[in-house]
Amino acid sequence: NIVTKKPTGVSKGEADFTLGSFDTYRTALDLDGKLSSDGKMLYRLNLMGQMKNTQRQFEFNNRYAINPVITYRFNDKTSLTAEYAFQHMKMSPLGSAYLFSYKMGELPRDFSMLESNLEPSTINDHSLFVTLNHQLNSRWTLTTQLAYLDNSQTASST
């Protein structure tokens, strides 16, 4: 599940870069602002990319995501928001992280059932939501939403 960040109307940006153990690299960009001078058209753009290995041989999780959001404010009570989310993931075969033994510590920490010739799992996930909000009064808001979801996955399982 992805929960997209909504536009705030405040012009700001943030960039993150993370380094971690086992060749973990992650970068993210979050931009927020106005597309029109009157403040009726707002945007939010989130981008993320990650490359990540683990202590186990042949295990990895690489992904990127693109999440633009546009909001149009008709007035103080009514707005229309369009959100798109795309995630692409390429990772070691599903199930490879689950190892079982009869005794704690029986398997070495870097033990893996994976082999170098196994095809990685590839996932492409698209979602589009269009939401209309109208505040009826101080206690009631009417929300209607249309959604389009498309998820494709090609994977091996160990």
Largest sheet: 7 strands, antiparallel
Low-confidence stretches: none
Question: What is the succession of H and E elements?
Answer: EEEEEEE
Radius of gyration using CA atoms only: 21 Å
Secondary-structure class: mainly beta
Strand content: over 45%
How far do the termini sit from each other?
24 Å
What general outline do the C-alpha atoms trace? elongated
Please bin the fraction of helical residues: under 10%
Assembly form of the protein = single chain
Nearest-integer average pLDDT: 90
Count every beta strand, where a strand is a DSSP E run of 2 or more residues.
7
Determine the number of helices (DSSP H or I, runs of at least 4 residues).
0
How are strands sequenced across the largest beta sheet? 1-2-3-4-5-6-7
Describe what is shown at a glance.
The chain is mostly beta strands and 158 residues long.
Question: How would you describe this structure to a colleague?
Answer:
The chain is mainly beta and 158 residues long. Helix content is 0%, strand content 55%. The chain is built from no helices and seven strands. It has strands at 12-20, 24-34, 41-51, 61-73, 78-91, 121-135, 141-154. Strands 1-2-3-4-5-6-7 form a seven-stranded antiparallel β-sheet, with no helix packed on it. The protein is elongated, with a radius of gyration of 21 Å. The model has no long low-confidence stretch (mean pLDDT 90).
